[in-house]
Amino acid sequence: MSINIYDIANELERAIRHLPEYKAAEVAKVAVESNPEAKKIFDAYMDYQKDIQAKLQSGQMLEDDVQAKMQDFSRQVQGNPILTDYFTKQQQLSLYISDLEKLIFKPLQDLL
């Protein structure tokens, strides 16, 4: 019997989308998208994260004010209950993803 690992991966992806934690994060994301203030903060935060990641990947030095900007974003997020709820729900879902990641990478770790 041959196992198609991609079929299993696709089944796992569908199962994740059926988790209550995924559904809750999905509802919270809609709330963010529906609120202009929350969406503005969220989009700015995501753009900043992408910018930092791109700079790190290209070997560029980060500006000295990165920590201050991240603290400012943290204050803005914490001051917005819609964003706080979204990130809390996302964190709850990420616990599953982290556990799955450990399982998926275990065979590779066993070979090291």
Task: Summarize this structure as a short list of keywords or feature phrases.
112 residues, single chain, mainly alpha
Distance between the termini: 28 Å
Question: How many beta strands in the DSSP annotation?
Answer: 0
Strand content: under 5%
Largest sheet: none
Report the oligomer: single chain
Low-confidence stretches: none
Mind explaining what this structure looks like?
With 112 residues, the chain is mainly alpha-helical. The protein contains five helices and no strands.
Topology summary:
Layout: H1 5-18, H2 20-34, H3 36-57, H4 66-78, H5 81-111
Helix pairs in contact: 2-5, 3-4
Brief sketch in words of this structure:
The chain is built from five helices and no strands. The protein is mainly α.
